[in-house]
Write a structure and sequence with these properties.
2 domains; 302 residues; 11 helices; alpha/beta; 13% strand
Length: 302
């Protein structure tokens, strides 16, 4: 048996469901942010330099490529609020600046350090010595991208994707299987795949090029060190064509964690629930209709 409502009672229920729908829409906007791109957006850039022994003959062109990149980012600061970090790695990781800096300010620090030509990472981040462990820098990238990291908490919908610019010859003195696993692990990190891009500036042998392309995500993301003078064109292409579309994806690095929904899946579930809540009054049973009417009348009185 169908329940018949008066016009006034039907209007009350319609208003109730309309209010529910608006609250759901407001909740989704709070969860996922505004996609307005008119404000100046942050562009996070990591510059990761391979300062191991095999890179010694590339020390000067590597340093020049880094300084040219910082200069280019400085000149484009009116388009994006560029925030940069320089990291040198060999037998250990050395962060020239632990916090992100304006590229112009970092450029002056790098110029001063490189001018000294001292043989230590602290004084000269481009000083090359020691064995190569590429999986170390791949693991470093992965460590920067988690739900609790400040970087991922600060990224906003509409920002350019985080850029990891890696200068390397991709010569590795450690286990190639360990390196392969590190790269695969990185690409299982949703924060990386949804928030980031890699550009490899390559100066190695042809035999290692395919592996370097795999780290970069494809040959289109790899350029030769002697072509680094055109780095501005590559950076511009990455900035224009890679924008963060989703906020707060699930970080699945730890496979023991239970599966969590992505924002898209949450939105679909909420939409389905809203549609179910808006089902026609004619299809309600007497008991359901009475309960909904009481809720609506109580809501309107409040």
């Amino acid at each position: 048996m169908k329940t018949v409502f008066t016009k006034e009672e039907g209007n009350l229920i319609d208003n109730y469901f309309s209010k529910m729908k608006k609250e759901n829409e407001a909740k989704k906007e709070d969860d996922y942010g505004d996609s307005n791109l008119s404000e100046l957006r942050n562009q996070y850039v990591y510059m990761l330099v391979d300062s191991t022994g095999s890179m010694r003959e590339n020390e000067e062109p590597m340093a020049n490529a880094c300084m040219d990149t910082l200069q280019g980012l400085k000149e484009k600061s009116e388009d994006y609020n560029s925030l940069t970090k320089l990291v040198s790695w060999g037998e250990s990781i050395y962060e020239v600046n632990s916090n992100f800096m304006d590229p112009g300010e970092l450029l002056e620090i790098v110029k001063a350090k490189y001018k000294l030509k001292e043989e230590s990472k602290e004084s000269n981040p481009f000083y090359c010595y020691g064995k190569t462990n590429i999986s170390m820098i791949v693991d470093y990238i992965d460590s920067q991208l988690s739900r609790s990291s400040e970087l991922c908490r600060n990224i906003k919908k509409g920002d350019p994707k985080i850029l990891f610019l890696i200068i390397t010859d991709y010569e590795d003195n450690n286990s190639l299987n360990k390196l392969r696993m590190s790269v695969e692990h990185l690409y299982e990190n949703r924060f990386f795949t949804q928030y980031c891009k890699i550009l490899v500036i390559y100066c190695g042998e042809e035999r290692n090029k395919a592996a370097a392309e795999k780290l970069a995500g494809g040959p289109e993301n790899l350029i030769a060190l002697n072509d680094a003078a055109d780095i501005d064109k590559h950076l511009a292409a990455i900035t224009v064509n890679s924008i963060v579309n989703l906020i707060d994806p699930t970080h699945i690095k730890n496979r023991s964690h239970a599966y969590e929904e992505t924002p898209n899946e949450v939105a679909q579930r909420q939409h389905k629930r809203a549609m179910e809540n808006e089902k026609s009054v004619e299809n309600l049973t007497d008991e359901e209709a009475t309960a909904e009417l009481e809720r609506a009348l109580g809501l309107m009185k409040g």
